[in-house]
Every structure is written in structure tokens, then in C-alpha cells.
Design a protein that fits this description.
The structure holds 2 protein chains of 2 kinds. By secondary structure, chain A is α+β, with helices and mostly antiparallel strands. In chain A, 38% of the residues lie in helices and 18% in strands. Chain A contains 18 helices and 21 strands. The longest helix of chain B has 16 residues. Classes of the chains: A alpha+beta, B alpha+beta.
Chain lengths: 553, 102
């Protein structure tokens, strides 16, 4: 993985020292709250419902065991012993004290981490496929390009005060696990007719108050032009994006209002003037970054299923269930990718205790070359596990409640912090997710239902990605009471779609019951056990689901 | 069905966040700040709350607390119960078990 050079380390260290001074001046009264608020937000420190919340950047979701161990220690030293992994592949601590916040950032800096650009109208943490560098279907490792984007976008002076925040996602595989079509810019690597690798550039996607699936602005962008093209898009957005209305300030609104053709014309004109300038990426620069992401020293193992794995699969039913759901095919023969579920039924989705973080770090050291990934679905990944080690990894994870065999199943729910923590929320998300997950605790039923992505947001800002859930749940406030509006048929993959509203919002109990009803309706309607919930919905439409829920309500 | 009284006409307390810790706090009868709503100074309505809020704003300027505001409460309850659900959660803390391994 990428290692800081002296410039990176100096930037981060100086930023900590600067913030320490700002906090001291705030505490002494030299800075007012109005003066201090933008400064703390530039360092990822929010004031939420109950306390300050620190949002830490995990660049493209990649962590070393040393970093995860440091996060575990920070959780104990400065927080209440746990952290919350987010849909932005970041980590949030919910109980940070202002007077200790600079110390927490200093501890982060020691392991090459920070909270810069996790807030504000800047280019945020670039996200990617959690299986990057390991996926069997990968065309090229997207982390290289995420790191190049990180270096370009960090403290970019021209883009520090954009009309609104800006999110970029990259996938290096045709199977999109990074939800690139619902980002401000999505980059999909593919090969052109000449066999060269480049990017499809997608612009104007996003969720929130006004959701849009992104539109292709360029079918194929040669790699050396990535930064100049991104800069051209950002310049057009910076110039023409609306600053008069917070709710219309994202690039998706600009693209929607002027149309993709006009957007393309403006961007291409801007790009024509700059494409062969300083941002053209020389081969050596790309190679230098790519060297940081060289494959780990894999053993040369035979292709096919490792005998120890096959034996455990046959002998240990629980292991078999877990292996079926929580492992994925690796590009290296004899290896697998493991999804570490942070979704034990009944637990807050995406939360990990300090003890669990330390345990995953230890397991990564022992079995996965010290590498860990964070997924936008709020789980962790051990990217490089020898198949023969899978039984031992399962046992080690199980000892820390991290081996729930539910990756991609109904209980693997995305949930934002909701009204339990978030100052913006209208309704709670986590308790609803907990209740739903408990309904699918029975492994037989859960595995029979198969892939089902349920996503919950506690407000219209859609941090829980509800628009692209197979079943989406949006919390709303109706005269002081929590209600939940359901959507069906959303998807964040390469065939991304926005969900359709099922009908009037339901109260919390009704909403949880409605999920059961929707699932039972699906089981009744599916053409075979191979047909997923989403496929059935796309085949039969909204009507039978709506009828089932509202006839029962 | 009886119409709910307007929020402004209901009893009020001042809440804020402690500057150093970020904790939820309430302005007390002794003009200090407490983490317990039971110790909050309660006034009959928002109009009467204006003076309390002015006092709180002065303390915000002295860098004790951040962003004070009035909230309606039901003072027939002990301790006073915030009328709005959001404020009930602020007063009592998250409604969920906070240990990840449930």
C-alpha cells in the first residue's frame, strides 16, 4: 500500500500543529465559535447530537494492520471503545472531546492518517472496490488511480471552496462494487477496441435530496489524461455550479439543468486547453505510484480448491455457510477474499469495538499480509487469505463475533447513524436495522432468500444509500413522530437504478413488518431460487408488493 | 381530537453543548450548566425563555458552551420531558446498545 513520503508526513504533521493552535485559541476565547467552526470541520470534527464526532479519512478504504491497531487504541484512549465504519469507507468516532481532539489527530498522523477533507465543500475521500488488487474480475488495480487522485486533490487550492462537496469513486472491474454511477464523478476502467486500458467517465450521479444516476460524459479517457480531465470537470462545476441554493449546488443539478451534451461541450473545451499541460501523467509517475501497490509475496499454489478448505467445508456446516457467503474468488490461485461482517444480527451496523479492530489487525498480520479494507457496505475485508487458512481465519473471527455468515444477505444492512447520533437526522436508523436483521437471524431462511440489499437513511441526505437499496428505507418526521418510507428496486451496481416509492410512509413497527411482507411476497413470486429479490421486482413490478404491504397495514 | 399546544407556549429550558467535551448541557437554576435536565431552569413559555437564552448567549461568548437554544418540555414530568423526540434522545443518549458485539 502507499507509504507517505516526507512531503506527505510534513503536511499532515503541520496540519496537526496548526489545529492544536486553533483549538487552544478557541478554548482561550481568542476564536469565537463562528470563527472556529469552519476550522474544526476542515479537520473532520463535527458537533453532533451528543458530542463532537471525528470523521477519519481511510483513503479508498485501505488500511494496514498497524493503522487499524492505532484506530483501536484511539477508540480506547479518546472515545468510548468503539468506532463506526461509514458508507464513505471512513471511520467515525462519536464521543471525542474538543480538548483532546488534536492529540487524537497527532496519534493518527503517527500512522499516516488524518481527517483532512472529510468535511466541507472539497473533494472528499476517493472510494473504490474493496476487493481492489485481489478481485478475479479486475482489469487493473484502481487503488493506483485513487492514490493519484488523492495526491492531486489534497489541498488543491482551486477546489477548496467548491459550490458543494464532491465525491469520486473508481472501479477497476466490470462488476461495480464501488457504486460509481451514484457519485459526482464515477470512473470505470475498461479496455477499448485497441486493447488499451482507460476510463469511462461518468458525471452527475448522486443520492441525497435529488437522486440521479450519473451520465457518461466520455466513453474512453486514456489514463495519462485522467487528472487533466478531472480538473476540467471540476473547473466547469466550480464556475457554473449553483451557489445560490444549497440544495441545488451539487454537480448533479448542474448536469441535469444544462444537460449532458452541454456539460460535455464545456468540459471538452476546458480540457482541450489544458490536456497536454502539467497534469498529463508521465509513465514514470504512474509506475512510481503503482509500485506501492505491487502484489504481496503470494505463494505459488495450485489452482482449484485447496484440500484443507474442501475438507472443512464438508465437515463443518457453520464454516461452510460462512465460506459460501463471506468469501470471494481471488485472482491468485489458492487464495480467497474474506468479508468480515460487522453486521451481527442485532448489533449496530458498521460498528466495531476496539477489541474487534485489534483482533482483525492481528488476523490480517497472520493471514493477509497485514492488509485490511473497509467496504462502503460497512464491513471489513481481509483481501488475501490462503484457502487452506480459511478455517483458521473463520475460527479466529468467530471468537470476536466477526464471522456472521451474512455478506450480501438481508441482515447485511447499510444504516447511517440516524437520529441516535446525527444532528441532521429526522428518524432513527440503527434500531430499525437491528430489528430487521433479527427477523433474518434464521440462517436457513436468510440463505434461502439470498442476495437482498436493504439500506436505511435517517434523513433525505441519504448517507445510508436508501435510493439504491433493493429495499430502501427513508426515515421521515411526521408531526414529531418517526415514519419510514420504503422504496423498491434500487441498485448501486453496474446496472444502477433508483428505487421506486412503495406508498405512504409507515411507522417503525409497520415498517419492520413490511420488510417481512415484502420478502414473503418475493418468495411467493420468484420464478426459482436463483432469481434474486431485485430480479423478481424487475420482472413483476411494484404492484404485487404494494398490494401485499398495504393490504396488511 | 384536541389540538396540541404550540411549542412556544409550552414550558421551556435552555440547552447547549459544553465547549470542551461537547456534552449536552442544560442551563440550571443557579445559572450554571448541568448534564442533567432534572437540574434545568424551567420557564413557562418561550417569551419568558428569552431572558434565559440571553444569559446563555452571554456564557457562549465566555466560551463555556456552544450554540444555546430553547426547547419545549413537559414539566409535569420529573425530570422535565422534552416535547420533541430529537431532544428526548439528546437528553437520554442514544437509544441503542452501544457495544458492537450485541
Amino acid at each position: 500500500m502507499y507509504q507517505y513520503d516526507d512531503i506527505d508526513q510534513t503536511l499532515v504533521d503541520e496540519r496537526v500543529a496548526q489545529f492544536r493552535g486553533q483549538v487552544a485559541r478557541r478554548l482561550s476565547g481568542a476564536l469565537s465559535e463562528d470563527e472556529f467552526k469552519p476550522l474544526r470541520l476542515q479537520n473532520g470534527l463535527y458537533l453532533q447530537l451528543h458530542a463532537y464526532m471525528l470523521r477519519i479519512a481511510i483513503p479508498y478504504g485501505v488500511l494496514s494492520s498497524r493503522q487499524l491497531r492505532a484506530l483501536s487504541q484511539i477508540a480506547c484512549r479518546y472515545d468510548r471503545g468503539w468506532g463506526h465504519f461509514t458508507t464513505r469507507q471512513n471511520l467515525q468516532f462519536n464521543w471525542i472531546k474538543l480538548e483532546e481532539s488534536a492529540d487524537a489527530l497527532a496519534d493518527l498522523a503517527k500512522v499516516q492518517m488524518h481527517a483532512i477533507q472529510t468535511s466541507g465543500n472539497t473533494i472528499r475521500n476517493t472510494t473504490t472496490d474493496q476487493f481492489a488488487g485481489a478481485a478475479h474480475d479486475e482489469i487493473e488495480d484502481p487503488r493506483v488511480w485513487c492514490e493519484i487522485i488523492r495526491q492531486w486533490s489534497t489541498f488543491h487550492p482551486e477546489f477548496s471552496f467548491l459550490p458543494r462537496k464532491f465525491k469520486i469513486a473508481v472501479t477497476g472491474s466490470p462488476n461495480d462494487r464501488a457504486a460509481v454511477r451514484v457519485h459526482d464523478i464515477g470512473l470505470r476502467m475498461h479496455r477499448n477496441a485497441a486493447g488499451e486500458t482507460g476510463f469511462e467517465v461518468i458525471v452527475g450521479g448522486g443520492l441525497g435530496r435529488t437522486p440521479f444516476i450519473g451520465k457518461t460524459i466520455r466513453d474512453f479517457l486514456p489514463k495519462q489524461h485522467l487528472l487533466s480531465y478531472l480538473e476540467a470537470i471540476l473547473r466547469v462545476y466550480n464556475q457554473f455550479g449553483r451557489r445560490d441554493n444549497l440544495y441545488k449546488a451539487r454537480i448533479k443539478i448542474l448536469v441535469h439543468e444544462i444537460g449532458i451534451e452541454a456539460m460535455r461541450e464545456k468540459v471538452e473545451a476546458e480540457w482541450l486547453a489544458s490536456r497536454d499541460g502539467a497534469l498529463r501523467l508521465p509513465r514514470e509517475a504512474i509506475d512510481q505510484i503503482a509500485a506501492h501497490f505491487a502484489p504481496p509475496p503470494f505463494e505459488a499454489l495450485p489452482a482449484g480448491i485447496a484440500p484443507a478448505y474442501a475438507e472443512a467445508f464438508r465437515r463443518d456446516f457453520e464454516f461452510g455457510l460462512w465460506a459460501r457467503r463471506n468469501t470471494a474468488k481471488h485472482k491468485q490461485p489458492g487464495y480467497s477474499i474474506v468479508t468480515v461482517s460487522l453486521k451481527k444480527e442485532g448489533a449496530p451496523p458498521g460498528d466495531a469495538s476496539a477489541e474487534q479492530m485489534a483482533a482483525v489487525a492481528d488476523i490480517a498480520d497472520r493471514y493477509s499480509f497485514g492488509e485490511i479494507r473497509v467496504t462502503h457496505e460497512q464491513n471489513l475485508v481481509l483481501p488475501h487469505i490462503r484457502q487452506a487458512d480459511l478455517p483458521a481465519v473463520h475460527k479466529a473471527l468467530k471468537a470476536y463475533d466477526l464471522a456472521t455468515p451474512n455478506a450480501g444477505l438481508a441482515s447485511d444492512i447499510i444504516a447511517c447513524p440516524g437520529l441516535d447520533y446525527c444532528a441532521l437526522a429526522n428518524a432513527r436508523s440503527i434500531p430499525i436495522a437491528q430489528q430487521i436483521a433479527l427477523r433474518f437471524r434464521n440462517w436457513e431462511r436468510a440463505h434461502d432468500i439470498g442476495e437482498l440489499k436493504i439500506k436505511i437513511s435517517g434523513c433525505i441526505n441519504a448517507c445510508g444509500h436508501h435510493h439504491v437499496g433493493h429495499i430502501g428505507i427513508l426515515g421521515v418526521d411526521k408531526a414529531g413522530e418517526e415514519f419510514y418510507q420504503l422504496t423498491l428496486g434500487g441498485s448501486a451496481d453496474e446496472n444502477a437504478t433508483l428505487g421506486d416509492i412503495l406508498g405512504p410512509a409507515l411507522n417503525a413497527d409497520q415498517a419492520v413488518d413490511a420488510i417481512d411482507t415484502l420478502v414473503e411476497t418475493y418468495l411467493r413470486l420468484r420464478s426459482s431460487s436463483e432469481e434474486r429479490f431485485l430480479d423478481t421486482y424487475r420482472r413483476v413490478g411494484l404492484a404485487p408488493f404494494k398490494e401485499a404491504v398495504y393490504a396488511a397495514a | 381530537m384536541a389540538k396540541a399546544p404550540k411549542l412556544d407556549s409550552q414550558p421551556q429550558v435552555v440547552t447547549a453543548n459544553d465547549l470542551k467535551s461537547g456534552d449536552v448541557v442544560y442551563l440550571t437554576r443557579a445559572a450554571g450548566w448541568s448534564r442533567h435536565i432534572a437540574e434545568a431552569s424551567v420557564v413557562p413559555n418561550a417569551e419568558a425563555g428569552a431572558a434565559l437564552l440571553a444569559e446563555a448567549a452571554a456564557q457562549a461568548k465566555m466560551n463555556v458552551i456552544v450554540a444555546p437554544y430553547l426547547i419545549p418540555v413537559d414539566d409535569s414530568m420529573t425530570p422535565p420531558l422534552p416535547v420533541q423526540f430529537r431532544e428526548r434522545i439528546r437528553a437520554a443518549g442514544p437509544t441503542i446498545e452501544n457495544t458492537p458485539a450485541a
